[in-house]
Amino acid sequence: MTLETESTVQPLAGQEENAVRPAPQSVGNPTPSITGASKLTEIIVVTSGKGGVGKTTTSASLACGLAQRGKKVAVIDFDIGLRNLDLIMGCERRVVYDFVNVINGDCTLKQALIKDKRIETLYILAASQTRDKDALHAEGVRRVFDELIADGFDYIICDSPAGIEKGAHLAMYYADRAIVVVNPEVSSVRDSDRILGLLASKTARAEKGESKVKEHLLLTRYSPRRVANGEMMSVDDVKEILGVDVIGVIPESQDVLSASNAGTPVILNAESDVAQAYEDAVRRLLGEEVPLRFLQEPKRGFFARMFGG
Ligand SMILES: Nc1ncnc2c1ncn2[C@@H]1O[C@H](COP(=O)(O)OP(=O)(O)OP(=O)(O)O)[C@@H](O)[C@H]1O
Ligand SMILES: [Mg+2]
Fold first, then answer.
1. Among 64, 159, 256, 261, which residue has the most ligand 1 atoms within 8 Å of its CB, making it the best to mutate?
2. Nearest CA to ligand 1 atom 3
């Protein structure tokens, strides 16, 4: 593999020791690396047009789910100025250096990567709190990705900021695959359509005329009751309007807030429907055929129906 970064890149240990790892497992077909060489790392952007739809919640859970299956995963917060991923991952007190520090050469990538305490193969790179939106630039992002690729990461998950500004553009620029997070309501669906347009035109793959970024929709905050009442769009409605396959449907649940308050990605709360729905999405990401669940309202018991429980 020829990489623009020198071959002297050291194995990354994260902010804890003991992380010199064996070569990674192959994940599907090699795709061309951002520097043109063959690579086994897949870069996934978690994006949306509208803000506050569940991107960070999704990035954290998918990263955990993949890492729990033995994949070596780095999850990166692209939301410059609004750090959030570290809170949801529960590592905010361990952030010493961030993404912009690495790009500026204030520290090494190894120093900035935070090794998750729960899952051996999971690493987090926090967003910078700087107000300087130019601190993140394509060349710097590419250098960081090249180093992660050289170190054998299987997945790089990019948690995009909302909107279509620079941060969101950079988060998607080098993506091999995109997960477009959408709430089943008109404004979110309309903004997702704009993002799908950008994925088709403003990414490195589009500019180089390479094969398209693989696109998936992930519906979150789905409430079968509200769909039945006509207050929310159904999965089929959203799929039909956007014309993209659905990789997951995540129910609306209080469990998400409880998990983020506890600094535990919700996928780790095995009893929760939300966790199971994210697990299903991870399996689909890995190529398994898994039917969609949680599309119907749970059947209510006799007492609940009689007394409105
Ligand atoms: N399935 C869900 N059920 C209930 N609440 C949810 C669900 N998913 C996300 N939320 C809530 O929605 C809010 C936004 O979630 P999150 O921060 O993940 O969105 P985001 O798209 O990353 O936002 P931003 O655009 O600001 O980065 C949070 O309060 C979160 O707890
Ligand atoms: Mg976010």
1. 256
2. 252
C-alpha 53 to ligand 1 mean position (Å): 5
- Say how many Å lie between the first and final Cα of the chain, rounded: 60
Amino acid 114: pLDDT: 98
Pocket, ligand 1, Cβ cutoff 6 A: 48, 51-57, 79, 84, 161-162, 220-221, 250, 252-253, 256-257, 260, 274
Alpha-carbon distance values, 173 to 9, 92, 140, 177, 223 (Å) = 23, 27, 12, 11, 32
Q: What gap in Å lies between CA 277 and CA 267, rounded to an integer?
A: 8
The pTM is what? 0.88
Q: Are 72 and 213 in contact (CB under 8 A)?
A: no
Q: Where are the alpha helices (DSSP H) in the chain?
A: 55-68, 85-89, 99-104, 109-112, 138-150, 166-173, 186-201, 204-208, 224-228, 235-242, 255-262, 273-285, 302-307
Residue identifier of the C-alpha nearest atom 25 of ligand 1: 51
Consecutive 10-residue averages of pLDDT for the chain (309 residues): 35 40 37 54 96 97 98 96 93 95 96 97 94 88 97 97 90 97 94 94 94 96 94 94 96 97 97 97 97 84 66
Residue 165 confidence (pLDDT): 84
78-95 residue pLDDT tens = 998 888 999 999 999 999
DSSP 14-61: TTSS----PPPPP-SS-EE-TTSSEE--EEEEEE-SSSSSSHHHHHHH
